[in-house]
Amino acid sequence: MPKLSDVSRHVRSKQAGPFWVTIDIWFDGEENFERYRESRGLSPEVFASLFGTDPALVKKIPVPELHLVKISYPRATPQGGVVERDMHSGQQYVRLLDVELG
């Protein structure tokens, strides 16, 4: 089963305000976008287990013109809090690279 890093051209994460994180996944072409955009590996349940969030709050927005899937989820703690380890959420995407898509 392919991993996200095998079928994507670029993956990034970023803050989406002090309470949300957004992950952008650019698939390597239209074929991979169509095949994996609804993958179980990108489900709200996977995001809940990886990022400690409520799966009911995970938002997924496909952008076919760009072969992109944008997924947003609430941060476990607000940006800049005492336990903050990634102020701009720029490293959060790394957890997804080895997720198997099915």
Number of domains: 1
Biggest sheet statistics: 4 strands, antiparallel
Low-confidence stretches: none
Total DSSP E strands? 4
Tell me about this structure:
This protein is α+β, with helices and mostly antiparallel strands. The protein has one domain (4-82). It is built from three helices and four strands. Strands 1-2-4-3 form a four-stranded antiparallel sheet. The N and C termini lie close together (7 Å). The mean pLDDT is 94.
List keywords for this structure.
alpha+beta; globular; 102 residues; four-stranded antiparallel beta sheet
Give the structure's gist in a few sentences.
By secondary structure, the chain is an alpha+beta fold.
Write the layout of secondary structure elements.
Layout: H1 4-7, E1 8-15, E2 20-27, H2 30-36, H3 44-51, E3 59-63, E4 68-74
Antiparallel strand pairs: 1-2, 2-4, 3-4
